[in-house]
Write a structure and sequence with these properties.
By secondary structure, the chain is an alpha/beta fold. The chain has one domain: Alpha-Beta Barrel (TIM Barrel), CATH 3.20.20.10. The chain has helices at residues 10-30, 52-57, 68-82, 100-103, 116-124, 155-161, 183-195, 209-214, 224-227, and strands spanning 39-43, 62-65, 88-91, 109-113, 134-138, 166-170, 200-202, 219-222. The longest helix has 21 residues, at 10-30.
């Protein structure tokens, strides 16, 4: 069981979120971009169900969950607390084909589609999907052995086989302590997206989101930077 974050306070998260937006504005300006093009997604893997209203109070509107069961539980809880929806939800974890059915009714984007079995399940459950559902294709840009994601050469055929619209690409660069070491992967993903006219780029986490924004990210997935 993952250790949940404790002691979340809305004022602290609000201040951290403002700093993240400030960092994004600076990074975007340095690259000649509009910071309004970049969405901040709060990763909720280590946030408890009972703390979700704290995120909403802090001004967070877009969240991403890693596990299908937690996604269902948290969405149900956040809806029941106010009789509506606190957030827009994305699925950002490793996508298991057997979990597709549980995910598609609830999310606007799935960030991690990278197998033909997932595509088949998306086709099977297309009627149950939330209206407007789109996917991002996960690309193993660095070609790390054993890591999730398709190879760059597979992108076109994979998109052609997708039964739902492909909005863009996602990648997780090799782990590095220096954010600059992620830049090459982010550059490569942007090139792959630009060549195909894909508009969404999910790349960058708490560690390296500034570099990701400089290189074209439209969604940054932030966790600990918001909560610590």
């Amino acid at each position: 069981m993952a250790q949940l974050i404790s002691g979340l306070r809305a004022e602290r998260i609000r201040a951290n979120l403002a700093q993240v937006h400030g960092d994004i504005a600076q990074a975007a300006a340095s690259a000649g971009r509009d910071p309004g093009e970049v969405e901040v997604l709060a990763a909720t893997k280590y946030v408890s169900v009972t703390d979700l209203p704290i995120l909403a109070e802090a001004g967070i509107r877009l969240v991403g969950e890693n596990r299908a069961q937690d996604l269902q539980t948290k969405i149900a809880a956040s809806r029941s607390s106010i009789g509506g929806e606190l957030f827009a939800w994305d699925f950002i974890g490793q996508l298991q084909s057997r979990k597709v059915r549980a995910i598609v009714p609830h999310v606007r984007l799935i960030h991690s589609v990278a197998t033909d079995s997932a595509l088949r399940e998306l086709a099977r459950h297309r009627e149950q999907a939330r209206p407007g559902l789109e996917i991002l294709v996960e690309v193993n840009v660095a070609r790390e052995p054993g890591k999730a994601g398709i190879s760059p050469e597979e992108i076109d055929a994979f998109i052609e086989r997708s039964p739902v619209p492909v909005a863009g690409l996602m990648t997780m660069p090799p782990y590095a302590t220096d954010p600059e070491n992620s830049r090459r992967s982010f550059q490569a993903l942007r090139t792959l997206a630009d060549e195909r006219g894909l508009k969404r780029l999910s790349m960058g986490t708490s560690q390296d989101y500034r570099v990701a924004v400089q290189e074209g990210a439209t969604i940054v997935r932030i966790g600990t930077r918001l909560y610590n």
